From TrEMBL:
Mg(2+) binds at residues 68, 282, 284, 286. Belongs to the phosphohexose mutase family. Its EC number is 5.4.2.3. Residues 60-92, 121-178 form the Alpha-D-phosphohexomutase alpha/beta/alpha domain. Catalyzes the conversion of GlcNAc-6-P into GlcNAc-1-P during the synthesis of uridine diphosphate/UDP-GlcNAc, which is a biosynthetic precursor of chitin and also supplies the amino sugars for N-linked oligosaccharides of glycoproteins. It catalyses: N-acetyl-alpha-D-glucosamine 1-phosphate = N-acetyl-D-glucosamine 6-phosphate. It is an enzyme of class 5 (isomerase). The keyword Isomerase applies. Keywords: Isomerase, Magnesium, Metal-binding, Phosphoprotein. This is Phosphoacetylglucosamine mutase. Residues 456-528 form the Alpha-D-phosphohexomutase C-terminal domain. The keyword Transmembrane helix does not apply. It comes from Sistotremastrum suecicum HHB10207 ss-3.
Amino acid sequence: MASLPLDAIVHLSDLHPKPEGKTFGYGTAGFRTTGNILGSVLFRVGLLASLRSKKFDGKTIGVMVTASHNPEGDNGVKLVDPRGEMLETSWETYATSLANAATTSKLVDELRHIVAVAKIDLSKPSRVLYARDTRPSGAALVQCLEDGLRAMGAQRRNEGVTTTPILHYLVRCVNTKGTRDEYGDDNEEGYYDKLSNAFKKLMAKPPPPLIMDCANGVGAIAAQKLNEHIGSILQLKLYNIATTTAGVLNNGCGADYVKTTQRLPPSLHGVLKPGERGCSLDGDADRLMYFYLDEENNFGMLDGDKIAALVSSFIVDLVKNAGLDKQIEVGVVQTAYANGSSTRYLEKRVPVRCVPTGVKHLHHAAEHFSIGVYFEANGHGTVLFSPSTLDLLRTHEPSTPAQETAIKQLLALSELINQTVGDALSDMLLVEVVLAHRAFTAVEWDSLYTDLPNRLVKVVVPSRQKFITTDAERRLVEPKEVQARIDALVRKYDGGRAFVRPSGTEDVVRIYAEATLRPQVDELASRLSGVVYDFEGDQSKRPKEYL
Ligand code: 16G
Ligand code: MG
């Protein structure tokens, strides 16, 4: 029986001591906090990724160093499983316990525990592929990760600076190479080729250029490369591409800015002209928000819900045109944050499921449909084609030329859309394809349904763990009094809907409210914040209007 390489682990672990008094948690999107305290976490993630690879008989595990849409000073890390999907939930606990072991000797105890409980054969090889976004703290953190991989003797493959979805793509490619599920060439060029070839099959004539806000993040680099591949059909006009300027990442720009402020990034004022459409990526290019100015210069936002509505109805029509609507069930997965109008729009057309926040929940629920469309309102999402659906599309004999065309288009979509995780660049190409096929302007797309006015606020609480939710986070089980007050308040507002949930990424609880009229939503959200402050809020941070 092989054993843990203790000498190397102990020696290298001592170089990366855990900061005292700090507790880390593997949350919704991995570990995420201030970049300069993450060294020990990265080292330990290196150890865990190696064990995870051994568990899969040496299959490649991915590690992405990013803090997505968070401020530039933050950083984070998450693991990617062999099929390019998020780390299985049961291993999140191992990640957390390793990260929190106070000393090297406790760390070794935890490692031994994981090896025993997860039944890991240490004689197996381990392979880990990793990358980072453009954050200044990233390079040093990758070195800590590499020490962890070195300690375990893992084979390392450094992909440098790239987007989160490209990292997921590469992991899937490496692990499917030479099998019947081969996903693509396992290099960045393979990714751009795959997307651009599918895009060219689906686009008949060039649309007007698209303005893209790259959040001053890694998406800028990837979008430039993509432009070289698709420029003859769709020209991307890139803004916020300052990837080496300090302080600008996600600052006043990017998908999260657009969603939370419901405004055009100031840097695009005067750039985006009336009648034009644009989009924003987030800091690691896995979220996408579209927007436009109408002829009267009014700003309109097209979020993940609007993307789900646009894309799912297009796919439903293609499936019908292919004559396969009896065999292929198209479904949509949303979270409680989905605008009530979007849910009503979708429910008339397709089965719709609501799941808790976080990509892993949406992804798994989407796998239950033949074609599962999932998008969070914040712009993260993708469309999954089940293996049996792909088989059917590849083997079905069409009876008419129209059916044949629809089948070819569905197959091209399955190549265009990243099957591993939400991908802003791939989603952007998808949106462009649907807009072109429907001959929609952004205004027409926006008019599929009208969003209910809504408001998202957060309240700082000493202990967000006290908030326990049920029914896909739409109701609180604890504290009971808070839910009772929410129910009583919501009843007073026409079209009212609201929920309170603990954040999975920050020490806050989030409050979402919607109602038929804008002033009423603002009032409802503010009264709900008051309720949370009454029960649990940090009184020193209570804004005056909630007193
Ligand atoms: C993370 C999740 C995102 C979710 C958000 C919620 C992934 C890859 N990302 O960014 O899906 O919407 O967290 O944050 O799962 P919250 O729990 O702080 O509201
Ligand atoms: Mg992101």
